[in-house]
Amino acid sequence: MNMKDFLAGLSDFWNEFRRDKAGLVGLAILTVALLTIIFEPLIVPYGEVNSRWRDINYWEDNSSGAPPAWTNLFSSAKKAVTTTLSKPKVEEIEGDGVSIFRYEFGYDYRYDEPPLDLVFRAEGWGTFPLLVSVERPDGQTIDLYQYVAEGLDGDDLRVTLANDSKSAAYQFLAANASEADMINFDSYSIKPMQIMFAEATPTMATASTPLEGEYKFVVQTMIMSEDVRIEKPHFTVVGAVSGALGSDTGKRDLFSGLVAGLKWALLIGFVTSFISVLLGVLYGIVSAYFGGAIDTTMNFVYELFVSMPVLPILIVISAVFKPSIWFIIAALVIFSWTGPVKTVRSMAMQIKEETYIEAARALGAGKWRIIFRHMLPLLIPYSFASMALAVPGAILYEASVSLLGLGDATITTWGQILHDALSSGAVLNGLWWWVVPPGLSIAIMGMSFAFIGSAMDKILHPKLRTR
Q1: pTM for this predicted structure
Q2: Relative to the CA of 392, which of 31, 130, 402, 423 has its CA 20 to 30 Å away?
Q3: Number of C-beta neighbours around residue 395 at 10 A
């Protein structure tokens, strides 16, 4: 077949495929999934999600078990959203051998409930003082933290301002409390963040309405030599709601985890279905072509494998060997190749009686040459539908194994996310955003391949057409 014939055949196939609405829906979902994988670094807010999904230090600045940010649309009291402020306005004041750097971060506060915490981070070298303050919309300035960093060598500098009893925010609270209130200061219900974002300074007995407007978080430091510096300064405003899909109890961003798991779902589905269907097609052709005792023996092996319960066997294998993702794929291939065998065998039985096959034998073509050169190319196109239909099963099997805690813990998969949700009691605690998105993703991805496979089946097997 030359290129012109191939393109003509592909055009005819597309003209048939686009008439199936369900097939187009499945193709659209698959296209979006592939684009998401390609542009993952630009989509996920946490770029190291793949390598540091289980690193608790990477996620420590987030809020724990926070609902998605869009839930504010359905809430009477809008909660502050977790936000990273990473583009400060930098001002340098030079003196006698000393430079004072001033980093100003703007934050537009428009919520009914204040953030839970305010975290400052930077990479530091040497020894330098650090002063953190906030300029409120009403013109009041509050010094939040004074700190001297000593002997840093590219270390990560982290200052949490609301939950540190030594911070100036606590001192500010104490200064505005009555003497009687100071007795119960540690158990006081009003927190420093409420003071910072309150319209008027609250007392121990009262709360105040929030002060909306532009806040300026200011960090000042003194640099006395070239060896002393700070880089990548940024603030994280820790809100009660976070991201597109919220966070889990480990403070991990679930949207980042869901996107990171997409490529593994498609990899598992594509690799497993491609190899298993290809093996099944070849197995069926060989069985049909040789016939006799070989066919009988191969049919016995087929019946043996097709009768095995795949999921229980995978669970046992995973529990014993603690497999990697590649081991799981190999196990799925071993037990999934049986799908196309019967259909391919019946078609191969007819093809081997065709005149051109007899002519090939008469010209001295060997058995394997006939199988690979004349029969396999004819039957491969009919296996495409089987490949598409096999993908959802592979994804579901991996998710089931991971849900039981027997998957590959070194990668981020939807099954792993569901396992963590189950073990942490997400359903009992009402953390629906931890359970629904990965479960829905598995269902949608399976549905897309089912639509594509069904459409291809109708095209490649015309007898299935209902129109």
Answers
A1: 0.86
A2: 423
A3: 28
